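To the wet lab folks,

You asked to see what we're planning to order before we commit. Fair enough. Below is the target structure as tokens, and below that is the sequence we designed to fit it. If anything looks off to you, flag it before the synthesis order goes out.
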């Protein structure tokens, strides 16, 4: 920890909340720039809506959602149409304030004209979402799943999923929503932070009982009831990959702005918390993605009347320690160096720093020596927690040179660690999902025309250049019409009050403009084919342009 600032470069930087240090020029940071913004309720809903417009069936794991206040009239109108087409549909909706967490400010409504919805125009923006009325119950209780996902790299995309997660239970038996029970949070909301205040909350030392259990214990129960657990897992994997595919375009825009290509900078990875609800028919539904999931392995308990203290939580420990241990194993810089050394057939000699030593310049003075030993013993405790056995990954005495351990010792140490709880799912299953990555390609065009490094918004000149270079204007679509399209869409997006800091067209507005152009050009096709065709068209013209520039030596 560097409470007073950091001086030396590190291999891995562990930031508490978000990516916040632009003075890192190497190594790896455990947060992506812009992740917090990208997974906020409204931004996530917009990204999922874009994907639902393109691939409605592939993205039906996210409940129908509308954004308040601006989509209130749309919400009311759409619900009216849906009701007219199916009079037996008796929906309930859940309203979630943007940027809220731990169930904060959430409420259920039956009537789209409920006064509180209109009221949110004056208050915080929110998402109103179809409420999943028939969740899978266990012991008559509603529960959700928290799964940990490691986004190890954005380009190329690398995703890992933890084999086990947490199941968080409600504390009152579930009933389908009625006007009478809508306000009963212990029945409808699974948040741990809410239910812990219920007198029915059960702290348990066992991972398969109580109000918080491991997901594997749920799978065991389901499997014993004859459920197809394999299919459930593959549905969950698909949900995670598709969700990340929906998020990557926005993340890439932030990434190039904070860590410009071609300049020295770190690479990033991040542990995400996916909140998933299982429906009665075992279909997993995404509730939200958490950029900063709690990694606490203790919970607060009343030890004696009025006296509260932190006690270990075996369920949290079982799941979370493995996630952090394996994240560190996967991003271990030594691993990469060992691999490189093997490829080059070099003798593997780790440096002091690689072995966890950072000898102060000018030798180690006595006081520093003591401090150093303390640091090492703390580090040892941490390693033990993570499952690194000291006899294998031995922390050397300060007097002892750590240079002795060779690749075999390290490989042996690795071999005795528990097998990885994080399983790679992408690129492993990339083939099945590559057709979904259309918006990623749109984002690539957007980034190309951004021009000024460090920006996330496209100016009018950039938009004109995009249209001109891709040869999109013609006698039916003049440059004046291009300007009008730019102004119309940009003004509307900027009036939604998301990000006024920078003027210009944000990625989502560009995506809307791109879809508009695609619909104009390829009228009769389904939307995803229109977009794919326009992408091919643009990419082809840009490739030809790049080739010409190369030939003429424009660089
Ligand atoms: P927060 O970030 O405040 O926890 P969530 O989106 O996770 O917000 O919602 C809180 C809880 O509300 C969830 O844990 C879940 O139990 C319940 N919930 C959220 N959305 C839905 C939904 N569409 N259908 C049913 N229950 C939901």
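Sequence we intend to order:
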């Amino acid at each position: 920890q560097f409470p007073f600032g950091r001086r030396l470069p590190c291999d891995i930087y562990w930031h508490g909340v978000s990516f916040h240090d632009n003075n890192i020029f190497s190594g790896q940071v455990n947060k992506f720039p812009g992740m917090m913004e990208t997974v906020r309720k409204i931004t996530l809903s917009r990204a999922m809506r874009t994907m639902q417009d393109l691939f409605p069936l592939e993205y039906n794991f996210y409940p129908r959602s509308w954004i308040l206040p601006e989509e209130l009239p749309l919400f009311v109108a759409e619900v009216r149409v849906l009701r007219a087409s199916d009079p037996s549909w008796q929906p309930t909706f859940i309203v979630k304030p943007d940027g809220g967490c731990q169930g904060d400010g959430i409420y259920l409504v039956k009537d789209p004209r409920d006064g509180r919805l209109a009221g949110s125009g004056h208050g915080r923006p929110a998402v109103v979402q179809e409420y999943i009325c028939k969740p899978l119950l266990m012991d008559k209780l509603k529960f959700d799943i928290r799964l940990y996902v490691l986004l190890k790299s954005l380009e190329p995309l690398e995703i890992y999923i933890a084999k086990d997660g947490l199941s968080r239970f409600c504390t009152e038996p579930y009933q389908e929503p009625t006007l009478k029970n809508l306000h009963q949070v212990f029945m409808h909301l699974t948040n741990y932070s809410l239910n812990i205040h219920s007198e029915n909350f059960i702290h348990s030392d066992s991972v398969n009982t109580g109000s918080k259990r491991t997901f594997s214990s749920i799978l065991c129960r389901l499997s014993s009831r004859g459920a197809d657990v394999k299919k459930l897992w593959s549905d969950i994997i698909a949900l995670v990959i598709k969700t990340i595919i929906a998020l990557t375009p926005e993340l890439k825009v932030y990434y190039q702005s904070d860590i410009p290509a071609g300049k020295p900078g770190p690479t990033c990875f991040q542990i995400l918390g996916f909140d998933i609800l299982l429906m009665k028919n075992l279909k997993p539904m995404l509730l939200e993605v958490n950029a900063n999931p709690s990694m606490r392995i203790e919970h607060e308990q009343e030890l004696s009347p009025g006296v509260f203290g932190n006690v270990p939580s075996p369920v949290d420990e079982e799941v979370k320690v493995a996630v952090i241990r394996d994240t560190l194993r996967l991003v271990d810089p030594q691993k990469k160096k060992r691999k490189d050394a093997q490829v080059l057939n070099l003798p593997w000699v780790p440096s002091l720093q690689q072995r966890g030593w950072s000898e102060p310049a000018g030798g180690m003075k006595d006081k520093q020596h003591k401090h150093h030993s303390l640091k090492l013993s703390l580090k040892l405790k941490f390693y033990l927690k993570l499952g690194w056995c000291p006899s294998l990954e031995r922390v050397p005495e300060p007097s002892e040179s750590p240079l002795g351990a060779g690749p075999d010792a390290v490989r042996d140490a690795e071999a005795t660690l528990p097998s990885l709880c994080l399983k790679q799912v992408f690129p492993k299953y990339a083939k099945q999902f590559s057709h979904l990555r259309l918006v990623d390609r749109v984002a690539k065009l957007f980034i190309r025309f951004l021009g000024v490094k460090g920006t996330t918004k496209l100016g009018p000149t950039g938009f004109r250049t995009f249209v001109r270079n891709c040869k999109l204007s013609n006698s039916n679509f003049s440059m004046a019409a291009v300007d009008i399209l730019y102004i119309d869409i940009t003004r509307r997006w900027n009036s939604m009050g998301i990000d006024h800091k920078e003027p210009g067209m944000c990625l989502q507005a560009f995506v809307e403009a791109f879809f508009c152009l695609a619909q104009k050009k390829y009228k009769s096709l389904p939307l995803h084919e229109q977009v794919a065709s326009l992408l091919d068209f643009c990419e082809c013209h840009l490739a030809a342009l790049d080739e010409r520039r190369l030939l003429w030596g424009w660089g």
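Structural context that might help your review: The first helix runs from residue 35 to 38. The longest strand covers residues 141-153.

Thanks,
Computational group
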